[in-house]
Write a structure and sequence with these properties.
This protein has 176 residues and is of the alpha+beta class. It has four helices and six strands. The strands form two sheets. It has a four-stranded mixed beta sheet, covered by helices on one side. Strand 5, helix 2 and strand 6 form a beta-alpha-beta unit. The radius of gyration is 20 Å and the shape is flat.
Length: 176
């Protein structure tokens, strides 16, 4: 885009399906749980306001910044998280992989890990798939979690999500 002109853009092509998703392998176990923001010391919840200030856009269509008190209000939410445990019983603690926007990967990542672990291409590991708190961009819970340049979200994962995930799935994770 030049000179503020807007245009349609096609992102692609789509990636082909990974062949690992079609290979037979013992299936691991997937455990889901829901976290309530009222129980969080770090992310009790926000929701973006929809008003004249938050609807402002620049000539490219990007949202214009607003002062924090003009963009959101306190609002509780619930998020789902999933924990994948490998099929074979293995020594614990387990290394783990974490996926953001977990619902996007819940049908793909566990299946790929089943095959990769069975083939010995990766060590047995757990996966924790975490949904965001909702919304997107400035003033939203998801924007606050993913776009803030601080250790707050990693602290949330380490102190609130992982202990709960371990309890719910009956697992122990490595801490390195």
């Amino acid at each position: 885009m030049r000179g503020g002109a807007q245009c349609d853009v096609t992102i692609g092509p789509d990636y082909p399906r990974a062949p690992e998703l079609d290979i037979a392998a013992p299936a691991g176990r997937l455990t889901a749980f829901v976290m309530d923001s009222r129980d969080s010391a770090l992310f009790p919840g926000v929701r973006r306001l929809d008003n004249e200030i938050t609807r402002r856009r620049d000539s490219y269509g990007n949202r214009l910044a607003a002062a924090a008190e003009e963009q959101s209000v306190v609002a509780p939410y619930r998020r789902t998280a999933w924990v994948y445990a490998p099929a074979a019983s293995v020594a614990q603690p387990l290394p783990l992989i974490i996926a953001q926007d977990g619902h996007v990967y819940v049908d793909i990542l566990p299946r790929a890990l089943d095959v990769l672990i069975d083939q010995g291409r990766v060590p047995p590991m757990a996966a924790v798939l975490i949904d965001s708190g909702g919304g997107d961009a400035q003033g939203s819970q998801r924007g606050l979690e993913y776009d803030t340049l601080s250790g707050r979200y990693s602290d949330f994962v380490e102190t609130e999500v992982l202990p709960r995930a371990a309890r719910e799935a009956g697992l122990r994770f490595t801490d390195d």
